[in-house]
Design goal:
Strand 2, helix 5 and strand 3 form a beta-alpha-beta unit. This protein has helices at 5-43, 58-64, 74-91, 104-115, 129-140, 158-167, 189-199, 219-222, 248-253, 266-275, 285-288, 298-301; strands spanning 97-100, 121-126, 144-149, 173-177, 179-180, 185-186, 203-207, 226-230, 242-246. The strands form two sheets. It has a seven-stranded mixed sheet, with helices on both faces. Strands 5-6 form a two-stranded antiparallel sheet. Helix content is 45%, strand content 13%. The chain has two domains: 1-44; 58-301, Aspartate Aminotransferase, domain 2.
């Protein structure tokens, strides 16, 4: 009996040991499953269904992940030249297309401060939240902004533009929104730019922030003087770059502009563009060689 007692003790203590072991294993498995679920949640591919920012293709993200280079290095100079050429194709123009490190709003602000002087009259169509911005912004710089207010969801008509030009023959520009983000309304820029040209000396200026790369647009053929777009819409790269196309009439208007400007001075940007040696500022270097370089992107070429 004495020899049997250790066995009895072992048999009686075994369930306690097994229970402790199973508890530890169960805790580990539960924790592992939780970690796995969290990992699976974070690995789910997220999709954006917004006008901007838009989803960034994987090929673009991989391009942006490459080591950073210096914005004065010859390698970047070559990229910059290609970007400038590609932007001309995008806008369908032979005129310069300047790149600014800013949002599209910054690009539009650059046109107001670089082309006009305090007291100048500009006509702006307000048919949504962003059209509203192009009425309030010039007023902040001392410009006389004449508002053409249209019902949300409706595009401006030829008659509305003609009426405003007749009432304000001194107008230096008419600002149109090609695609109003807040309503999804598209404006017939081709027709309205012709109306502006044929009935005034005003510049035809276009907010193409949502439109370029998504809607047909022909800067030279349609007689547009200014067009601004942003990187995060139809171009499908992250926010941070604005592109500004300028006609020769718009470039000439910069000579007489007296509004204060520094960072958004398009004269400085144009000077750097003409030299083709460097960008006007450091800029978002990785963005330049991502979606802006279709030669490196099979998706963009197709």
């Amino acid at each position: 009996m004495v020899r049997d007692r250790p066995s009895e003790i072992q048999i009686r203590t075994l369930p306690t040991n097994v229970l402790a072991y199973r508890t530890r294993v169960l805790y580990f498995v539960t924790e592992l499953r939780f970690v796995t679920l969290v990992a699976e949640f974070h690995s789910v591919k997220k999709r954006l269904f917004t006008p901007g920012p838009t989803p960034v293709p994987e090929t673009v993200m991989l391009k942006m992940a490459e080591p950073i280079i210096h914005h004065r290095h010859p390698e970047f100079m070559e990229i910059l030249k290609r970007v400038n050429d590609n932007l001309k194709y995008l806008f369908q123009t032979q005129q310069p297309v300047l790149t600014l490190a800013s949002s599209g709003t910054g690009g539009v602000e650059a046109t107001f401060v670089s082309l006009f002087s305090a007291g100048d009259t500009v006509i702006a169509v307000n048919g949504g939240k962003f059209g509203e911005r192009w009425v309030t912004m010039p007023r902040a710089f001392g410009l006389n902004a004449v508002e053409i207010k249209t019902e949300w969801g409706k595009a401006p008509t030829e008659e509305q533009i003609l009426d405003a030009l007749r009432k304000h023959p001194q107008a230096k520009a008419v600002y149109l929104v090609h695609s109003e983000t807040s309503t999804g309304t598209a404006t017939d820029v081709k027709t309205l730019a012709r109306v502006i040209r044929e009935n005034s000396s005003a510049l035809a200026c276009v907010d193409g922030i949502t439109a370029i790369g998504a809607h047909e647009f022909r800067f030279d053929e349609w007689g547009v003087d200014v067009c601004v777009t942003g990187s995060q819409k139809g171009l499908m790269i992250p926010p941070g770059l604005a592109f500004v196309a300028l006609s020769q009439r718009a470039i000439k208007a910069m000579d007489t502009s007296t509004l204060p400007k520094f960072y958004f001075d398009l004269r400085k940007a144009l000077k750097s563009y003409d030299k083709e040696r460097h960008a006007v500022d450091t800029g978002n270097l990785s963005y330049y060689r991502s979606r802006c370089c279709p030669a490196d992107d099979p998706e963009r070429r197709s």
